[in-house]
Amino acid sequence: MLELLTKSLSELPSYFSDANKRIFYIYLLSAVALALPVYFAASTKRSPVGFLKFLFPKSVWLAKSAKQDYALWVANKLLKALLFGPIVLTMAPIAIALSDLLEWSFGHIEPIALAKWQIITFFTFLLFIIDDFTRFLLHYALHKVPFLWEFHKVHHSAKVLTPFTIYRSHPVESYLYACRMAIVQGTAVGIGYYLFADAISMFDVLGANVFVFLFNLFGSNLRHSHIWLSWGDKLEGIFISPAQHQIHHSDNPQHFDTNLGSALAIWDRMTGTLIKASEVGKISIGVGQYDCGHDSLFAIYTKPFIESAKSLNLSVKKGVTKLRLNKHTDKTRG
After folding, report:
1. Of 8, 26, 165, 232, which has the fewest Cβ atoms less than 10 A away?
2. What is the pTM of this model?
3. What are the residues whose beta carbons fall under 8 Å from the beta carbon of 187, sequence distance 6 or more?
4. Are 7 and 80 contacting, i.e. CB atoms less than 8 angstroms apart?
């Protein structure tokens, strides 16, 4: 176990050199570049020192909430290694099962004859769309299902936003996202294998899906930051901007359960949960009156279980009461 923990800790620096991680150094540098015009627009006295202070205000980066994010980055990495490794879903059996199901349903087909680049483009886009849509669906459920919200509330309990807030999540939520990723990959591979046999492969940049790479390159780290960057009304109807995600973290009840999408805004448009940056004024971050007091790592890990149990108990009571009322109504009508 000690060896496992040591290995997990030693992997943390690789987050800055792995294109599949949000804090990959190229993504961080691109965020700095995108923040530069925001600084120029907001400041009259401009200087390199002033820009650094704009990027790294102590009130944000040294806030108690931010320090919790840094600690959770490390603690969750260790917990994931200890708890999730043996029990998380894996891609291979899902891909095989789906491919077999497609063959059973529609019969065997000869691999579709397309140019290699066409197959790569199709599979890369398919993987991205399934990933973004299922990410939206799970995020929607985390907000709308009361007992799941208690775990997701950990992420929203942040009082300030930094790129490390992406790692502010409860292990239960992390486990759900890990299973979702296995389902996404298995589904895409299963469909791809049925259509193209073993000719499928992904167009990537440094090992990351090219669409995900571009999403991260264009300001993903500013989503969790104090820097307000909007894409404008037209683009924000297609892509979620950093400012739109900051609205998602607003403690204003009017902004709760909005902008749930990751990269694409089309899912929010379909469900009526989209808000554009131009529609919102100044915001503050958090969950406001719904804060459960996530003021320590112990509370962050334990309170969601307590509150989730209360939520489930309340739902059961409401269900029983509704059932009794329905029976009473039926008897009265009878």
Report:
1. 232
2. 0.90
3. 94, 95, 98, 130
4. no
